[in-house]
Every structure is written in C-alpha cells, then in structure tokens.
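Entry 12.
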Amino acid sequence: MNKYFASAYQFGILGGILSVISFGLLSFLQPDPTNLNLVFGYLITPISIFMALKFFKDYTNNGYISFAEGMSVGFVAYMLIAILSGLGIWFILLIFPKLFEAINKSKLQVLNENRETIIGQLGEPSFENTLESITRMVPSDIALNDALWKIIPGLFFTIIISIILRKNPN
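Predicted 3D structure (tokens):
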C-alpha cells in the first residue's frame, strides 16, 4: 500500500508546508493574508497533485497509471495539503492572536464597505447573518475554510490530471 502513496505523501506534505509558509509570509505583508493564501493554494495544489501522480506513474508504476490509481494518489496528496495547511494556519492564529484580530477586523471592514450592495442583492437578513458569523468567528473557522478550499479544488484537479496522465498497459 505504501508503494501507492509514497509520492502522495512527499508532495502532499510539501504542498501543506508551502501553504503554511505562504500564510506566514503573507501575514507580514498585509493584515488579511487569507485571500492571497487561497490564491496560492490554487497554484500549489494542482502542482503538488501533478507531481505526485507523475512521480507515481514514472518511478513507481513503470510508466502506467489508471484513473483509479490517479484518484487515490491525488486524494492522499490534496488531503495532506488541506490537513497540514489547516492545522498550520490554526496554530499560527493561536500563537498570534493579534493576527486573528486583524483578519477579523479586515473582514468586518470589507463587509461594511459592501453593505449596500449586499443588502440590495441578498437582503438585510443575509447581511445580518454574515455580520453575526464574522463577529462569532474563531481561528479554527479560518483554518477550516482554508482546508476546505484545498479539498474542493483538489478533487477537481485530481480528476483532470488523472485523466490527462492515465496510461494503462496494453
């Protein structure tokens, strides 16, 4: 079983570590690093999945990879990225509560700046629910959101990359 997942472990762990590092570095550059870290995640997740599948195909499976193998290896890779990223971000926010406060303040400011647009499009109750959600936000909410936005695109990218790299023995 380890044969199937060795490359997934390597590139999943690498992707997760890079995501945590990017969150840490971006937090020095701006008060709310969450949005840019999501963009970075959209870059690192498919690259990590591709590398895990490519290494599995070329170095473990004699140049062949089935769709099922690709989905399995990709799943492990993007889940590791999501878990490590989520735990790392949660840990950073627990260690640096002022960073969490800055993120929360930034999200409230953006919400208030777009108040009229939100109310016009979605109604007052939607705005009030969003405001309440942001005021009750805790560090684990930010970490969970980041992890989910690694898993959802990770599944999509795994499907596409598995199809592209698929090569079965004749």
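Annotation: The chain has a mean pLDDT of 94. The first helix runs from residue 2 to 29.
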